[in-house]
Amino acid sequence: MTIGVAIVEKQRMLRELLASVLSRETDIRIVGEAGTGAQAISMTRECPADVLLLNIALPDMNGMEVARLMQHEAQPVKLIALSEHTEWSIVYGMLEAGAMGYVVKSAAADEVVQAIRVVSAGGLYLSRAIASQAYALERFGPPVSVLGRREQEVLTLLAEGKHSREIAERLDISAATVEVHRRNIMHKLELHTVAQLTKYAIRKGLTSL
Questions:
Q1: Torsional sign, CA 145, 150, 153, 159
Q2: Spatial separation of the C-alpha atoms in residues 11 and 135, rounded to whole Å
Q3: What does DSSP assign to residue 2?
């Protein structure tokens, strides 16, 4: 399966270089390019992409703003942040805003390709330059972005004490589907009890209880 990739980078030369390198991969095709956040949002509306490579320092808005706007619009594209920064606060901020990957600009081209493939398949990718900071994921838990929209809805209702049948009625799905979502949520978050899920949901602001 070919992965449709859109590139958002303010520097035209770097944007064209990325496009040229990625176009050599048989399973990747470039579906669009943009230089600002506004162009990125407009582009993904008109040219749906599987993965968006997003420079987090754009002329008109930062990467977190772009990611949140796309989440608000429920755009299905998966984001990979591109940045010169390796500070964990910035990395985690992008993950919390909806990014599924974070690649440092100094990384080799093969790492960008690997990130695209991992994120396209639903995984979480951190650049090798910041992988040593991954302990922070253990402290704060995986970002909410690892869960799909429906999974987040199910998690919120579970945390609020709703049973599977109540959740099914609220979301107009079957109780069996709720159970599938519950198992997937626990697997993705590496949590094993409803109590742990509740703490996670509160920490991430999915529910205030």
A1: negative
A2: 33
A3: P
Residue 153, both tokens: 């809805």
Find out if CATH 3.40.50.300 is the number for domain 147-203. Answer: no
Q: What does the pLDDT average to over 20-43?
A: 93
Average pLDDT over residues 131-153: 72
Assigned token pair, 52: 């968006």
Tell me if 43 sits within 8 A of 15, measured CB to CB: no
Give the C-alpha separation, 188 to 185, whole Å.
5
Q: Where are the alpha helices (H) located in 160-193, listed in sequence order? A: 164-171, 175-189
Instruction: Enter the pTM of the model.
Output: 0.68
The whole-angstrom separation of Cα 137 and Cα 119 is 17
Sequence spans of domains, the chain: 3-140, 147-203
Residues 6 or more apart whose Cβ sits within 8 Å of residue 22: 5, 7, 28, 30, 112, 113, 116
Tell me the HSE value of 171 on the side-chain side, using a 13 A CA sphere. 25
- Helix or strand or coil: residue 157? helix
Domains 3-140 and 147-203 share a fold: no
Q: Which residues of 29-56 are buried (b: 16+ CB within 10 A; e: fewer)?
A: ebbbbbbbbebbbebbeeeebbbbbbbb
CATH for 3-140 is 3.40.50.2300
Q: How many CB atoms lie within 10 A of CB 93?
A: 19
CA dist., res. 45 & res. 172, Å (int): 28
